[in-house]
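Support reply, case 0932

Customer input (verbatim):
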Amino acid sequence: MKTLKKLTLLHSNDMHGDFFAEEVDQNLIGGVSLLSGYLNKVRAEEPNTIYCVAGDMFRGSVIDSEFLGISTIEIMNMLSPDVVCIGNHETDYGLAHLLFLEKCARFPIVNANMHIKTNNARLFRPFIVLHIGGMKILFIGVLTEEVLAQTRNDGLVGTIVNVEEAAREVTKICNAYHAIDIDFTVLLTHIGFEEDKKLAAMLDPSLGVDVIIGGHSHTVIDEPAKVNGILIVQAGTGTDQIGRFDIMIDTEANCLDSYEWQCIPISSDTCPRDVKLEELLARYKSSTDSKYGRVVTRFNRCLTHPTRYAETELGDVFADAFSESLGVDLFLLGSGSIRSKEMGPIVLYQDMMEAFPYDDEAYLVMVQGKQLRHMVAHVLRDEAFAEGAHTEFYQFSNGTRIIYARERHEFLQFNICGKPLEDDRLYSVGLQAYHFHNMEDSFGLTIEELSRNRKPRVIATSCCEILDEYLSSHQHLDCKVGDRLIVL
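Our regenerated output:
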């Protein structure tokens, strides 16, 4: 005979410092005050409620950047998640700082695979068993090196390389803890929706994994995917929505009996405000307003960045800012570095920092024409255009005109500095430090190969300062997209 118990499982991912509500048609949408109000409401209504976050709490807000994530941890403490896993942006302020932030957190952070290479000691607890309503719920945190590029700068820290190794690690943990009568098992991952599907397909059903709650790819879904009997979900990005499972668990068979899942909009129509959380936000905002409230520039109109996988208006302006300021033939600007969908016409310093929060160094590399063609072909490989792709993509500075036929994998035109690319000529190319250090993954070449042309070097210590200075001295900027990168 079945013994059924109800579990309400709420989940967010990729919140990225989305702290404040936005007004849409006289209705407030999103923000942590309304999110907290919804959490409090559900917790009062459903005694067996767990709230989990699948990575990337950090980045996207000047409040987060100014206080190096400490402000975000304090805000998250008020949201009181029951468990959080590490995302790639949790490492943006450095691994040592992340370990400090973990001490500030009043909630558990799980990660099964980040470890110190010398002795294989894990940096975080790999899993947690939550006891609620007479049930034992196992959460395992998973991250792969394929998304955690930031740690490659730290030679002492290792991690799981791919989903195959992740599957082996999950198998080991599940095998070890079946003996404590786990009623329900959740993988909290930050590897992307398509990778979650691959991971689910590799797991033996006897391990008892019931649900994968993921992040990283910012995927919006209408219903859970089901692979190998495992339900897979994400909740987009930011705080405009939250995922909700209402699950009936068979505690005799230790498995899911039935469920209902929905993506709940967070708005003032349905969610009460959390006034105490608003007071905390106000204190942080007043501290940053004086520094970030100045006007940097005025565009002729609002410029947009609707996608990371195509040439965009903001991408053109930002790439030109770096190429002109640094005097390089070509600046390849990481599309994912631009975190805002639009900016302007009035641009405050806060707007600029939220749109471009990554204050990397800038590197100069000398690249042969044939190597540059190879680099761009790698960026434009078929994988970049696959459904659910999350590869690196780039914005090209002025003077570039590339026409690429995808079906034939052929460049029909490749101009740099307004002239056809010459295979044996050396071109000066500017890169952000993150993309320089991840050269092989981003461009399919090694730093050693390019060093044979000329030793790479740092030519600027702050990309944000370059952008600030350029925008401040260039008023009424405008641009027309579509002539730098054309993919047929």
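We compared this against your earlier run and they match. Two observations from our side: The radius of gyration is 23 Å. The chain has two domains: 4-285, 293-487. Please reopen the case if you see a mismatch on your end.
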